[in-house]
Amino acid sequence: MFKNVKNPAFKRNAMILLVLGILMYYVFCVTVGEQISILATYLSAETGWNPNAIVLPITYAGILSIAFTFLCNTAFMKFNAKHVIVGATAVVGVGFALIGLSSTILNFTLFFATLFVIRSIVTFLNNGCNYLCGNWFSENRGKALGVVTIGGPLSSATFIALATFGVNSSLGFSGIYYIIGALIVVMAIVMGIFLKNSPEEIGAYPDGADKPSQTLPDQQKKEPGITITALLKRADTWLLVLSFGLLVFGSGCITAFFTATMIAKGVTASYYLPALTVGAIIGMPISYILGMIDDKFGTVKASLCLCALYVVCFLGIILTNGNNILTIIIATIGMAGVTGGAPNLTPSINFYVFGQKDYLAATRVIGTLQSIIGAFAVTFIAAFVSSGRANTGYTILIGFVAVAAVALMIIGKLHPNKK
């Protein structure tokens, strides 16, 4: 990524972005998903609150996040993106500390309101990270996104174990949440000091090139980007909504019901729990590998590879019956590819089609529409798994992935000269 970069200032600041980007994705994934088991198990035991009531704020805010996809990308268009991201990060950090406080003073209203707010606000972190990577990298955009999205599987592999250790220590639930909150606030301070919106701020250019290849983000804010009306008239807009909307739908089915499906198919905990950990670990290199494919062969080809990994996952699940180690491995590899690659390629395909200049204007609309499609994933797969027809549900999902692949190939035909 930095092989031919001669500008030391670019290397230094780009590395800072990548490290902070990993942390942003880590915090995002912890906030929206990884902490659920800690809240439902340990907070419930400590306070006596109903586990179902405890996770309700995440559910409600998850629905609201559909609108926040539009709002946060609009905010990046209107204001200094760095300031928005830093502010959001600080709010999330304070929120974790307040959750710890709520367990101490047994105030469920404070807990509910705080969790709802941070689950909504944290959307600014992953969307902001994607945007900054697009500012700093062009030819190496895929690898950059592949690096920062490692934060997702890294959180899956580490957070529950670390948090469980902390909660069971003398720190307790409140103590560990105070520490998490403090660390996130420190992260916001570091971001405020060192993070830059674009390489132009330090006299450099994207990828460390010696000449400009993009207009400055500040200039872009003064120029009207693509309008919503114009966007909705474009065929590639709807192809992106269809293709990655269906992939987002598939991701939702995998992440929400992988464990439930394994249990329904007779897999014991001694098999599926290690599979989840291994899948998280494998997802980290797969994220970067797909980024390399993105940069070398193009985003469409990388996205088609991602589609193949979805099919591998779904086939592995369909073929699993009891503790069949081979099919569990197949499903795990596919799941790792999905969780590692989807967060990387979802923003990259928008950069591919619309370029850096119109990325925010396009993503706020396309991402919102994709989120609406994805919102029905849990209801869909739950209906099939709970009725004993899991294989039928996952077979339908393979059909959805095939439709997504066709839409991606059409996008490739519409933009044949891009990588």
Note down, in words, how this protein is organized:
This protein has 419 residues and is mainly alpha-helical. The protein has 18 helices and no strands.
Quick one: overall form? globular
Residues in helices, as a percent range: over 70%
Helix vs. strand class: mainly alpha
Mean pLDDT level: 89
Order of helices and strands: HHHHHHHHHHHHHHHHHH
Task: Output the keywords.
419 residues; globular; mainly alpha; 18 helices
Strand and helix map with partners:
Layout lengths: L7 H27 L1 H12 L3 H28 L2 H25 L2 H14 L1 H14 L4 H8 L2 H18 L3 H23 L22 H6 L5 H5 L2 H30 L4 H29 L1 H21 L5 H30 L4 H16 L2 H10 L3 H25 L5
Helix pairs in contact: 1-6, 1-8, 1-9, 2-3, 3-5, 3-6, 3-16, 4-5, 4-6, 4-9, 6-7, 7-13, 7-15, 8-9, 8-13, 12-15, 12-16, 12-17, 12-18, 13-14, 13-15, 14-15, 14-18, 17-18
Short overview:
By secondary structure, the protein is mainly α. The protein has helices at residues 8-34, 36-47, 51-78, 81-105, 108-121, 123-136, 141-148, 151-168, 172-194, 217-222, 228-232, 235-264, 269-297, 299-319, 325-354, 359-374, 377-386, 390-414.
